[in-house]
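User: I'm writing a short report section on ligand binding and want a predicted complex to refer to. Could you take this sequence and 2-acetamido-2-deoxy-beta-D-glucopyranose and write out the structure as tokens? A short remark afterwards would be nice.
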Amino acid sequence: MYTPQTLILAATLLITADCATPNVSLVVPPAVKISDTATLDCKLEPFKGTLHEVKWFKDGTIIFQYKPAEVPPGQSFNVPGINLDLDKSNSSRIVLSNVCPNASGLYGCEISTKEPFFRSTLHTAFMFVVDVPEEPPTVKYRQVNANIRAECASPPSNPPINITWVVNEGKTYRGSDTHISTHINATRNHPQVTLSILELFYRDAYKYGMAHVRCVAKLFDLYHKEAEFVAFDVETFTLPGQKKLVVYPASKEPVPLEKHFVIYFLLVVVVVGALYGYVWYKS
Ligand SMILES: *[C@@H]1O[C@H](CO)[C@@H](O)[C@H](O)[C@H]1NC(C)=O
Ligand SMILES: *[C@@H]1O[C@H](CO)[C@@H](O)[C@H](O)[C@H]1NC(C)=O
Ligand SMILES: *[C@@H]1O[C@H](CO)[C@@H](O)[C@H](O)[C@H]1NC(C)=O
Ligand SMILES: *[C@@H]1O[C@H](CO)[C@@H](O)[C@H](O)[C@H]1NC(C)=O
Ligand SMILES: *[C@@H]1O[C@H](CO)[C@@H](O)[C@H](O)[C@H]1NC(C)=O
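Assistant: Sure. The structure tokens for the complex follow:
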């Protein structure tokens, strides 16, 4: 009834079902500096069977293939702007050396195995080659009474730099009292300036009558520079050490000192009473 052939077929089907969906792990650095080396990894997890072929693509064009059955197994294809380091590339990795701006693009890999047969779909990820600017962002501001309008402009870059604002190290920052708008000119694949405008409308932003405002500019983990200023509010400004240390938000009145006294007094009465009761109970 069960011939060896049917058994082998059944076993193969079982193994195939077991391995029908191995995961492709593709790791592409999101950004690299011009002239640096980029390492891109692609492998099956878990890996079962015999590797048949790995193919790498950039923007849909094949740049590298690895076939263990061929000599040499690794072969690169001449694509302008791509310097693939054949010696350092293997079945699970490609190394691009001295990257230039036009190496930016969508990288993808495809893996197939035999025994059992498996062919992955194309997995892709984008890599930016960035000309990292040297200059910090520039900030200028205008103040009318306690209201501040600040503009922060990043140096041009592709992709554009991310700008975030920090007011008094975030301690008195209230989102609802501020307005932030960011503008980037829509010219693709061209270095662009990010312009961010911060508007602070209330005194809550001030601590001791001062607002310390930082514009934080970041580009992946390749660039992190800041510009800052301190604005003063003449009506609430106090030197540290002076009495008027806390600026109360307009909406909230400070708790009168008398109320604190009443609460402390009641607390003391309760604690002393409890202690008294305990001592009396023990004796
Ligand atoms: C593939 O990844 C998914 C989600 O990350 C996970 O649930 C699954 O177990 C993985 N499959 C294998 C064969 O590792
Ligand atoms: C990519 O840039 C390099 C050097 O900057 C240049 O030699 C090459 O022609 C460019 N390739 C394409 C496709 O633009
Ligand atoms: C490919 O090369 C890298 C670096 O030399 C190494 O860590 C990795 O194990 C290699 N992969 C295979 C499948 O041999
Ligand atoms: C965007 O472009 C316009 C016109 O080209 C220019 O006036 C404006 O200053 C630019 N904005 C930024 C943030 O570069
Ligand atoms: C900007 O910030 C977003 C969100 O944190 C992040 O996903 C993106 O990669 C950043 N872009 C750059 C160019 O740093």
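A remark for your report: Residues 80-81, 100, 102 surround 2-acetamido-2-deoxy-beta-D-glucopyranose (ligand 2) (CB under 6 Å). The CA atoms of residues 107 and 125 lie 5 Å apart.
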